[in-house]
């Protein structure tokens, strides 16, 4: 049974940084794509970043490009999202997700519907 557990959210001032972690268990994830999404109440889940577990290819949403970095630690089965230069509009619940299909297609990996497993989410609040 796949389990994704996020941590690292919290309250930070504009311009600050946070690092989110997603601990994955229950499978061998070498063929998976791991993604981060975020959601504000009343809005659709928004793609933030994705990483291919094998090889480490990455892709970012336009709103976070240049500020956020996704990475993974194979030994710890953990995916990270380093968030720098945070803005109030980054305030959301951040979710980690896993896509077992593994097809590295931008049209696919940016869509929350294709991800098979989700964490419980962690709140990030950026104060102005």
Describe what this molecule looks like in 3D:
This protein is mostly beta strands. It is 3% helix and 48% strand. The chain has one helix and eleven strands. It has one helix at residues 106-109, and strands at residues 3-7, 10-13, 18-25, 33-39, 46-52, 58-60, 68-73, 78-83, 92-99, 117-118, 122-127. β4 (33-39) and β5 form a beta hairpin. The longest helix has 4 residues, at 106-109.
Task: Write the topology of this structure.
Layout lengths: L2 E5 L2 E4 L4 E8 L7 E7 L6 E7 L5 E3 L7 E6 L4 E6 L8 E8 L6 H4 L7 E2 L3 E6 L1
The number of strands is 11
Q: Radius of gyration from the CA trace?
A: 13 Å
Average pLDDT works out at 95
Cα shape: globular
Residue share in helix? under 10%
Q: What is the percentage of strand-forming residues?
A: over 45%
What profile does the largest beta sheet have? 7 strands, mixed
**N-to-C span:** 40 Å
Number of H- or I-type helical stretches? 1
Ranges with pLDDT <50 over ≥5 residues? none
Class by alpha and beta content: mainly beta
Q: H/E series, N to C?
A: EEEEEEEEEHEE
Name the features.
mainly beta; 128 residues; 1 helix; 3% helix; 7-stranded mixed β-sheet; 48% strand; globular
Brief description of this entry?
The protein is built from one helix and eleven strands. It is mostly beta strands.
């Amino acid at each position: 049974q796949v389990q994704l557990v996020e941590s690292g959210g919290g309250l930070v001032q504009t311009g600050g940084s946070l690092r989110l972690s997603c601990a994955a268990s229950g499978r061998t994830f070498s063929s998976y794509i791991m993604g981060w999404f975020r959601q504000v109440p009343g809005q659709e889940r928004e793609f933030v970043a994705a990483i291919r577990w094998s090889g480490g290819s990455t892709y970012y949403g336009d709103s976070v490009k240049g500020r956020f970095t996704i990475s993974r630690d194979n030994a710890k089965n953990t995916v990270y999202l380093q968030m720098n230069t945070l803005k109030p509009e980054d305030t959301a619940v951040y979710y980690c997700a896993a896509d077992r299909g593994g097809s590295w297609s931008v049209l696919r990996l940016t869509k929350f519907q294709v991800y098979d497993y989700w964490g419980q989410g962690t709140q990030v609040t950026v104060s102005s």
